[in-house]
TrEMBL record:
Family as reported in the entry's similarity comment: Belongs to the glycosyl hydrolase 39 family.
Stored InterPro entries: GH, GH39_cat, Glycosyl_Hydrolase_39
Residues in Glycosyl hydrolases family 39 N-terminal catalytic domain copies: 106-536
Upper lineage: Bacteria, Bacillati, Actinomycetota, Actinomycetes, Micrococcales
Organism: Occultella glacieicola
Xref: Gene3D superfamilies: Glycosidases (3.20.20.80), Glycosyl hydrolase domain, family 39 (2.60.40.1500)
GO molecular function, one term: hydrolase activity
Name this protein carries in UniProt: Glycoside hydrolase
Coiled coil: none
Keyword Hydrolase assigned: yes
Keywords: Glycosidase, Hydrolase
Length: 575
């Protein structure tokens, strides 16, 4: 068995306190009991819906029937809609989508060297997003082929059936050779969007320059990028005076690049309405294993929520160094447990977590911990984007970072977003005596997050109380046959009686993957098998709804949680 180089696309060279992935520790202690207290009368303010954002590389799959259908599912999960961030809108090409590549094919030069624009593909992309009830996070990237500088010829590749030229291989990452022409492209793009979708819709959009310029996505100097931002922000604002513009979307190890960017925008008084950056919970090494199909990982590794929170906090504190930016939101517009999105269990068996109940529970936990981090930091995270969509041509449960697998089957991961969508408008006080706090970041010594039982609770305008209660550990290999006994004690209930509904995501609930494995993991399922798989793919009730009558505004619910699992408890006041 041989391995590739230990380099992952999409992450910087993080030399900080955390390893590239969390090793497995079979000796780590389990949590077998927990007490949870929820006070429905203790309001903690508006619940920031930081999870209402997705993004992906494969821009040309946005407008396929499957892409449109999936976008529609997200549109139904939010009153305001999700922000959707696709890559490659300015890249040149035919519009044929493949993993980790795509193109909007907007910019062209005629025979006389005059610029003209073709919005055929981008119209399909943005139409699909807007028509599904969502909004665009416009990633203004990358360099069109006709704007690639002459010195990009230094990027040598061997042409092949899948690498047509050095452009597809990365020449699109060079700075545009003509910044004025780039600015005109930005203004034309903004004007076209305004004309097509109207001011009310476009006013909801975010306009962001580039992606991860601190690594190979940018083949110029930091100073060249900073200047490109000045040109870009000015061009957007010429057309859209109230547009929200920002950047620079650095990786989790991009603190120095971010600091230089903010120093530039501050000195130049550039428009800046948000600051964006990324974090990844793991970069498995080797990222691809060349061996027998479905073989084991060379080392058992897992994501680290601690690593992600540490990177978010580090980059937020860089923003905090600039007092004029304290009020700007942080947009973590790639916020993922692993990288890259298109690698699967066939590349490295550690990616299996992306098929299982582990991942939705991890995501619920992560969103709550980011909210907790907001409570301790000056700069507030406004969006934490899952860089996930779907992949054409997959096998069933390929194990990529996606919401769907083959046959349009929903993976358990999508149910995390269904569960989060059921939370109400206001966060209420909730605590667990078996929770792991974000304040422990400085004391964890680079270790991943240990096992915990924790809770996130809310109240709606109609008095409905909803709580997510989970049991999770970062180590995907550290399982437990014993369920945790959890007592949920709720006070502050002001209705005479409630209907209690209980939904669950675990190995046997809300989990099409388990059903697929249980029938032999077929890659050519029969119609009956596929129907059985899809029947169990949504968010499922764990038990029948029942009536609860509080005593002096208090009630109690007992849960038994396997590892990993998340329960959604909803107390609906009865008329």
């Amino acid at each position: 068995m041989t391995f590739t180089a230990e380099v992952n696309p999409g992450v910087g060279l993080n030399k900080g306190s955390f390893p590239h992935a969390a090793p497995s520790d079979p000796s780590a202690p389990h949590v077998h009991a927990a007490e949870i207290a929820i006070d429905a009368a203790a309001d903690r303010g508006a619940l920031a819906r930081i999870w209402e954002s997705i993004g992906y590389d494969e821009i040309n799959w946005t407008y396929t029937p499957t892409g449109r259908s999936l976008l529609g599912r997200f549109g139904e999960l939010s009153d305001k809609g999700f922000h959707v961030r696709p890559h490659y809108v300015f890249c040149s090409g035919t519009g044929f989508g493949i993993p980790h590549w795509g193109n909007g094919n907007v910019f062209h030069l005629d025979a006389d060297g005059n610029a003209f624009y073709d919005f055929t593909i981008t119209d399909q992309v943005y139409d699909a997003i807007v028509e599904s009830g969502n909004h665009v996070l416009v990633e203004l990237a990358f360099t069109p082929r006709d704007l690639v500088p002459d010195h990009a010829a230094e990027l040598e590749v061997v042409p092949s059936p899948t690498v047509y030229s050095n452009y597809e291989a990365g020449a699109w990452g060079y700075p545009p050779k003509d910044y004025a022409a780039w600015g005109d492209l930005i203004a034309a793009h903004a004007q076209h969007c305004l004309d097509r979708y109207g001011a009310d819709e476009v006013d909801t959009w975010l306009w962001e320059l580039w992606n991860e310029p601190d690594i190979f996505y940018w083949r110029g100097t930091p100073e060249e990028f900073y200047e490109l931002y000045s040109v870009t922000a000015a061009a957007v604002r010429r057309v859209l005076p109230t547009a929200k513009v920002g950047g620079p979307a650095v990786t989790g190890s991009g603190a120095e690049f971010l600091r230089g960017f903010l120093a530039h925008t501050s000195a130049r008084k550039d428009p800046l309405d948000f600051v964006s950056f990324h974090t990844k919970g793991s970069a498995f090494r080797p990222w691809r294993v060349y061996g027998p199909t479905g073989g084991p990982a060379p080392e058992q590794q897992s994501p680290s929520a601690h690593k992600m929170l540490f990177e978010i906090r580090t980059l937020s504190r860089v923003i905090e160094e600039f007092p004029e930016y304290h009020g700007l939101p942080a947009i973590v517009d790639e916020c993922d447990a692993g990288v890259p999105a298109h690698y699967s269990v066939y590349d490295n068996a550690n990616f299996r977590f992306q098929n299982t109940e582990y991942y939705p529970v991890f995501q619920v936990k992560l969103m709550k911990k980011i909210l907790d981090l907001n409570a301790t930091e000056t700069v507030q995270v406004e969006q934490a984007t899952s860089w996930s969509f779907y992949f054409e041509g997959e096998r069933y449960f390929e194990g990529t970072r996606a919401f769907l697998t083959a046959g349009g089957v929903e993976k358990p991961f999508l149910n995390a977003y269904r569960a989060l969508a059921r939370l109400g408008e206001r966060r209420i006080e909730a605590a667990s005596d078996a929770a792991h706090p974000v304040t422990a970041l400085d004391d964890c010594g680079g270790a991943s997050m240990p096992e915990e039982v924790d809770v996130l609770a809310s109240r709606g305008a109609d008095g409905t109380v909803a709580a997510l209660v989970w049991r999770h550990i970062d180590d995907q290999y550290h399982t437990d046959d014993t369920e945790a006994a959890v007592n949920v004690n709720i006070t502050g209930l002001d209705a005479a009686s409630y209907t209690l509904r209980h939904y669950r995501i675990d190995a046997t609930h809300s989990n099409a993957h388990t059903i697929w494995e249980g029938i032999g993991s077929p890659q050519l399922p029969t119609d009956d098998q596929l129907a059985a798989i899809k029947e169990r793919q949504g968010l499922e009730e764990f038990e029948a709804a029942r009536e609860v009558t509080p005593a002096d505004g208090a009630a109690q619910v007992g849960l038994r949680l396997p590892l990993p699992a998340v329960s959604l408890l909803i107390w609906e006041p009865k008329a």
